[in-house]
Amino acid sequence: MSHSYFEANARERLAQLLDAGSFRELLPPGARMTSPHLPPLDAPVAFDDGVVVGAGTLDGRPVLVGAQEGGFNGGAVGEVHGAKLTGLLERALDERPAAVLLLVESGGVRLHEANAGLIGVSEVMRAVLAARSAGIPVLVLIGGQYGCFGGMGIVSRCCDAIVISEEGRLGLSGPEVIETTCGVEEFDSRDRALVWRTVGGKHRYLLGEADRLVPDDIAAFRAAARELLDTRPDLSLAALEAEHARLGRRIDRFGDCRDARDIWTRLGIAAPERLPLLDTAEFLAATADRRA
Amino acid sequence: MTVRQWNTQAQNRAARRERAAALARGRHVASADARALLEAVLEPGDRVCLEGNNQKQADFLAKTLVSVDPARVHDLHMVQSVLALPEHLEVFERGIARKLDFSFSGPQGARLARLLGAGKLTIGAIHTYLELFGRYFTDLTPKVSLVAAQAADAAGNLYTGPNTEDTPVIVEATAFRQGIVIAQVNEIVDRLPRVDIPADWVDYVILAPTPNYIEPLFTRDPAQISEVQVLMAMMAIKGIYAEYEVNRLNHGIGFDTAAIELLLPTYAESLGLKGRICRHWALNPHPALIPAIEAGWVESVHSFGGELGMEAYTAARPDVFFTGADGSMRSNRALCQAAGHYACDMFIGSTLQIDLAGNSSTATLGRITGFGGAPNMGADARGRRHASPAWLKAGREARAGRNTIPRGQKLVVQMVETFREHMAPAFVDTLDAWELAEQAGMPLPPVMIYGEDVSHILTEEGIANLLLCRTDEEREQAIRGVAGYTPVGLGRDKRMVENLRDRGVIRRAEDLGIDKRLATRDLLAARSMKDLVRASGGLYDPPKRFRNW
Amino acid sequence: METLTFEYRGGRALAAPAAATLTGVVGSGNLEVLVEPAALDGACRVEVTTAAVGFGRIWQAVMDDFFARHPLADVQISINDVGATPAVVSLRLDQAVEAFRGGVA
């Protein structure tokens, strides 16, 4: 029986993603490393501050893992939460695991913690880049209810590869933020079909922002992560400039599109209106060699 | 000696039509002339039915009615089943209408209470659907009815399709008592798929500028079903459906009953119940029933109304749903209510408050929401004469040890978690309905289901079988015994509750042999809207607000 | 927020020492339950921090029933609650004890 990644909480995801029984938590709940900012605001704390970090093995190879809990404040990053992720990534420099896996589920910075949360996110970004430059791949998995937005959206795009499910969402500003800022005519956040075809996993995969699209099954995320363990992206200046040039061409090609469906049509995908309904295997077949 | 005129109503009708003659070409009137039409045919004090259903709304005609000149059209008496749109109350605010008889006002309940308090309207009575329809044919016949249909042809025949709902009852009452029927339609076509309302029952047809609004009222996203609801659904299936072999039934709206629907192909199947329960339904086309239909559980479904997105699915399953020769579903609220009242062995639904006598109410302070159809579903049909195993068993339990002539009884199950959101207890000493009745000057507290009709109360703590209670005291303790940690539950007589449990009046999950650890969302045949679409083979097309793809 | 403390005596210690376990999530209508071995002189101690203020009597009744179902000794139970109903609280407590006893990984 398949186990839904979307439905599982952070601990359940880790238990099934890693080799059985291999996970060893750092700063476990018993350490009570909770947020100092929430109690003065009379807001509830979580014993792990909404993120589970630790070490385990994937197919016998050592990995470090961090999993955000979307159920606690939408996975928003506070000071402790951010520091746990930063510490995990810095630890990778010493331990040199096969990879660092980040199971991201976050609306961005925890508003209660304001600047401390913002600084926390920027420290995570710097730590990601440091780990990558030390040759340790940092892989992101996205498939939870709250998606991956705000600061963690930026963090995720700073990593080596992203595995996403159709249910997963990736973006900078969340749908409600866009509607509030730009008006419902620009973006109707209650139109969930619009939301998903704009920030959902399928579209992010077609745009090339996510590297793998997998079904909503923890075993499928595990298989994709295992395959990506040996990812060694070219971090040379030439490669970065080529990537910038590619992004420039992407804007030239699609910049005037009003809707994701326009982009799919321009990509030459047959019957693009069908894409949202296809299951993952059918979708991958229908869009093979058509990604931006 | 004067000769009595026996056709004054027909003469009045002719006069109204004469005033509107210049506006119509055949039966067709342009939407730009809609307001002029209403001002021509309406007279002060008219009884008017503005078709407001659970789902389909005559929204263009509602807006038009709000726009008429109150100097010409006033003191209308609105007789309509549902107040769903803001316009349904604006006619009172603008002084166009004065009196109201209705059934249900869910979304407008708070505003209705305010308008009543401000003296903007008087309420004749709050009815169940069948009662109000009954009065359409006695003392509340509409003089003018404003209805909605999917399509009309040149002659004025109407196609109402899956969302037929109240239209036949309204039109029949109006047309055959010399009233005026005006229909808004979404399209005018050369050839209708089928004729749901014949043209000679219809006076005027208006092509509306936008399609009529339909509310997807019966769609429940399986992602929101909790594990406590799964546990309660397991208890319902094993402790009630299987015990009584319930085969003809109605489910209320809500996540509690959606969980039961989604457990049929999994948990109920594992108990070997397929073919033994749940074969015939009086039910809207609930998307949550798709997995059970696909797994072969369901022989028939007759519906009160349609459900947005279920059109292609119901059309593709004509062996199950009531379907016209054209291939599309047909609903009919009045007939389905009759089926639910007389032909179903069980009604099961959620509620907001239950008192110590088992009276159940969805009334809350400051809101006048009415009843809809639940009281007709959730009441013993005392006129019923045909037997079935479920009906007979319930009757035996209720009458055992009494010297009464044998008869059956309907199973009426109220399913509720002991606490709602924000720790509001579902069990109370006194229903809010009493205070609401006082506030609003109602003759009766608005009780959805009377305690004497309730056969079982099901909570996460257990099932109380009220049929087996022999005294008021037993009944009260049986209710307290499943009321959990609410003040009512904490006030139980523990010894008496244990005694009731020994007698099987109260049954806990463990008494039913249910392993609570199995009560997880993994048991649901669909855990997301996408799962429902998959189960339907891609035929179900959910409204966009329910998608995450 | 409100903090409530309950202490029970007369329970039985587990045969084998168990590791701390966390069950549930601190989200609306939900709670997390941390169960840890603790040298409490045979007591079972429960500390609840809850966002729903004023329900001490109900918590007392829920915890009394819990201890009747699971008479534990030398165990510390710590709860962060965001207005879960008693049904959800009882369910999480049962799940937490089962995980603590090693029934679930």
Structure description:
The complex is a heterotrimer of chains A (292), B (549) and C (105). Chain A is α/β, with parallel strands linked by helices and 292 residues long. Chain A has helices spanning 10-17, 79-95, 114-133, 150-157, 175-182, 192-199, 201-206, 218-228, 237-254, 260-266, 280-286; strands at 24-26, 51-58, 61-68, 99-103, 138-142, 161-165, 212-214. Chain A has a domain at 10-170 and 210-231: Alpha-Beta Complex (2-enoyl-CoA Hydratase, Chain A, domain 1), CATH 3.90.226. Chain A is 40% helix and 13% strand. Chain A has a 7-stranded mixed sheet with strand order 1-2-3-4-5-6-7, with helices on both faces. Chain A is globular. Chain B has helices spanning 8-20, 34-41, 59-66, 87-93, 109-117, 129-136, 167-175, 227-244, 255-270, 290-294, 311-315, 333-343, 374-377, 389-399, 432-440, 472-480, 487-490, 494-502, 529-535, and strands spanning 24-25, 28-29, 47-50, 76-82, 97-104, 122-126, 144-152, 158-159, 180-188, 204-207, 248-251, 280-282, 300-302, 346-349, 353-354, 360-361, 411-415, 456-459, 462-465, 506-507. Chain B has 2 domains: 15-207, Glutaconate Coenzyme A-transferase, CATH 3.40.1080; 223-530. Chain B has 19 helices and 20 strands. Chain B is globular and about 75 Å long. Chain C has 105 residues and is an alpha+beta fold. Chain C has one domain (2-100): Ribosomal Protein S5, domain 2, CATH 3.30.230. Chain C contains 2 helices and 5 strands. In chain C, helix 1 packs parallel to helix 2 (86-100). Chains A and C meet through loops of A and strand 3 and strand 5 of C.
The shape of chain A is globular
CATH superfamily of the domain at 10-170 and 210-231 in chain A: 2-enoyl-CoA Hydratase, Chain A, domain 1
Radius of gyration of chain A (CA) equals: 19 Å
| Top CATH class of chain C | Alpha Beta
Number of spatially distinct domains of chain C? 1
Major sheet summary line of chain A: 7 strands, mixed
